[in-house]
Amino acid sequence: MFRYFAVISIVFVIYSNQHLQAQAANSETQSCYSSAEARYRCFNSRFSGMLERARERVEQRKAILESQAAARLEKEVSPTEIRDLQREEIRKLVEASRKRNVSNRGEKYSLTYGFVLEPRD
């Protein structure tokens, strides 16, 4: 019984000692709480340079957004290019139907039926 009590008491002492060591304040922390002026100095030292860091993050974020916008603009195809691609597809369809002598409605090709697009000069 005595051994059991001794083991429990040793575990308790070790456990409580670790918590007390975790709460032990060093001299720097104690000096910050010695007076109101000391607290203010510690506060300023903790937050000095924060505005500059925030400005740097804002500039970095703007640069990232601008690069993303530029990438989106590069990916977008202009309406003129889209129309040119569509016209080219229609020209290919007309050429294929002329070769088969069939109009876009499935009838025999004549000069009055089908798409006839002249190339631009």
What does it look like?
The protein is an all-alpha fold and 121 residues long. The chain contains five helices and no strands. The longest helix has 26 residues, at 50-75. The chain is elongated and about 110 Å long. It starts with a helix and ends in a 21-residue tail after the last helix.
Number of distinct beta strands = 0
Q: Determine the N-to-C terminus distance.
A: 108 Å
User: Could you state the oligomeric state of the chains shown?
Assistant: single chain
- The secondary-structure element order is HHHHH
Q: Any low-confidence stretches, pLDDT <50, length ≥5? A: none
**Beta strand %:** under 5%
Roughly what is the average pLDDT, rounded to an integer? 77
- Taken from the alpha-carbon principal axes, the silhouette is elongated
Structural class: mainly alpha
Fraction in helix: over 70%
How does the major sheet shape up?
none
| Number of helices in the DSSP assignment | 5
What's the gist of this structure?
This protein is an all-alpha fold and 121 residues long. The chain contains five helices and no strands.
Record the SSE blueprint:
Elements lengths: L1 H22 L3 H6 L3 H12 L2 H26 L3 H22 L21
List keywords for this structure.
121 residues; mainly alpha; 0% strand
